[in-house]
Amino acid sequence: MIYDALQYGKQVADTAVRHRKNYKNSRKHTSGEYLSGFYKEDVLKPVVTLVIHFGADEWDAPLSLHEMMGSQNKKLMRYIQDYQIHLIDPAKLTEEDLKKFTSSLREVIEYIKYSKDKEKLSRILKDNSRMLIEREAALVIKTITNTAIEISEKEEKIDMCKAIDDMLSEREARGAAKGEIRGIEIGELRMLVKQVKKGRLTIEEAAEDAAMSVEKFRNVTDDMLKEG
To answer: Residue 196, Cβ neighbours under 10 Å: how many?
Structure first.
């Protein structure tokens, strides 16, 4: 509502400035028209404001000013101007609706719509030439959906399919590395526990070898120590 009002106000102000610069033509108009700066033949250009819901879940908030006021006296509400929003809600858009978008906003909306459905998201990413999108659009997707993709500052176009693949490959590599390290740590701890059980090492010595405090060593290996 504020955005619309500001746009209309700017149109009126710009028109008034134009008229005052063209002072000769203003003489044939009334003093009221001259003071307001907006003549009878002047018109406003329509302003349409769209609200985009950047969420995968369906919009469940009010869509008008009246709805925000709750249950009110009907006689009173007749005198209160209503203001409705034109909402673009990804969750409610059909495949045909998405095809109506011609800019990269289509890919942003589509990604958001399917961001919680891995199978459908994979389908729209795979072999999709439209998923080569502007860097700014990729940044919107990354921020809104919290997708940890790498976006180079040097690239003007981002291949979202490749970016997602790279992200998943990196996650798998990190997971494998962590699993290997974790496996080595558990193996070493089991070996130290065996040495303690056999009396070859004291708990203090085992904790020192594991680079832990005695208390932490006991907490980590408590179940191991209880095993027969």
So the answer is: 20
Low-confidence ranges of the chain (pLDDT < 50): 177-178, 180-181, 184
Is 224:193 a contact under the CB 8 Å cutoff? yes
The amino acid at 85: I
For residues 91 and 113, the answer to whether their CB atoms sit within 8 Å is yes
Q: How many CB atoms lie within 10 A of CB 141?
A: 25
Burial of 207 (0-12, 13-18, 19+ CB in 10 A): buried
Element (H, E) at 87: strand 86-88
Helix (H) or strand (E) segment spanning residue 198:
none
Residue 139: which of 113, 104, 168 has the closest Cα?
104
Token output for 150: 């790498």
The strand pair at 157-159 and 132-134 is best described as antiparallel
pLDDT at 59: 95
Burial 101-140 (b: 16+ CB within 10 A, else e): eeebebbbbbbbbbbeeeeebeebbeeeeebebbbebbeb
Task: Return the DSSP state at 45.
Answer: P
CB of 59 within 8 A of CB of 87? Answer: yes
**CA dist 40 → 10, 26, 33, 46, 64 (Å):** 17, 12, 7, 17, 32
Q: Which of 202, 206, 201 is nearest to 216 (CA)?
A: 206
* Res 124: pLDDT: 77
* Pair of tokens at residue 7: 């746009």
